[in-house]
Amino acid sequence: MQKFQKILFWSGAFILFLGFVYLLRDVLLPFVAGIALAFFLDPVATRLQRRIRSRTMAVVVVFSVFALFCLITLLIVFPIVQRQMSLFINNVPVYVSLLWGKIEPYMDELKKMFPKQTADLRQTVVGHLSGAAKMVLKTVGGVLSGSMALLNLLSLVIITPIVAFYLLRDWTHFCGTIRGLLPRNEAPTIRSLLRQINDILSGFIRGQATVCLCLSAYYAITLSLTGLDLGLLIGLCIGAVSFIPYVGSTLGFLLSVGLAAVQFDDYGRLIAVVVVFLCGQMLEGNVLTPKLVGEKVNLHPVWVMFSLLAGASLFGFLGVLIAVPVAAVIGVLVRFFIARYKESDIYLGTA
């Protein structure tokens, strides 16, 4: 009876937590982002605290350095990205003409086979491309001008740093408070599970964030050196999406090769773009991920992709932020219950 009450209590608490997150999903984003930022910076602040003997001063120094790094990066990258976007938009008609010049010989054959259907094909294609571009720009403009989108953006910029600062300053106090609320009988087991969850989260989040930064720098620099228009922007986007296994590199490869095929007349630069991605995959798979993330994380790529897609479907961008932590918690709990099951009389057949 007591075990049933415990199961009922923890199940009810978990359901209430999910309901709380779902109901407040529109306002939780800056707070979840602040928690993630504090979790990311806590090891550095803890090491610095041991040297200067003041948690507040350590947090101020770490937070100031981090904010300065983000500001300098933004001031350097934003003008370059803006210039590349302007250049790309101005060159869209040129790209369309180049693309048409490459496929026109094949269209001549189609015209011979289907003269009526292909008579005004060029005008039709250009019209559809223009309509699609206008629709995309209108959609993006609507999203960016929406009140909730502006509110979320402002809250991320203003509230997230404040939440992260205070959480980082009081991180030890919060952890001690949570430990003090654990049920006495189950406290050792819960602390063991929390340590496993912390190891997985620290290994994945901090390691994967470092991998994303390294890949962003690699692809942005190498694609720019090949002369690819939007090379810097594409490289940064590949790194930013690299926390989703295989998605960032695959989309980046298709976009880069497609743009290179239109932009370059010779195959040498196209091959250079392909070589960039081959070297990037070897760098990520053989050096960065094993060294920075490691295999101790125990989060299968398929499980990570499923959790990210499920989180995005249920809670939007907030779901993307909490997907990996929730997947880590579920993975630890599933392994714990499997171990308990194998020790039980049901599995051993002694019941």
N- to C-terminal separation?
A: 18 Å
Total helical elements: 13
Helix-strand pattern, N to C?
HHHHHHHHHHHHH
SS-based structural class? mainly alpha
Tell me the overall shape: globular
Given as residue ranges, the uncertain stretches (5+ residues, pLDDT < 50) are: 142-147
Structure description:
It is a single chain. With 351 residues, the protein is an all-alpha fold. It has a domain of 162 residues. The protein is 86% helix and 0% strand. The chain has 13 helices and no strands. Helix 2 runs parallel beside helix 5 and helix 7 packs across helix 12.
Topology of helices and strands:
Blueprint (H helix, E strand, L loop, with lengths): L1 H22 L5 H24 L2 H59 L7 H25 L1 H23 L1 H10 L6 H39 L5 H11 L5 H17 L3 H27 L7 H15 L1 H27 L1 H4 L3
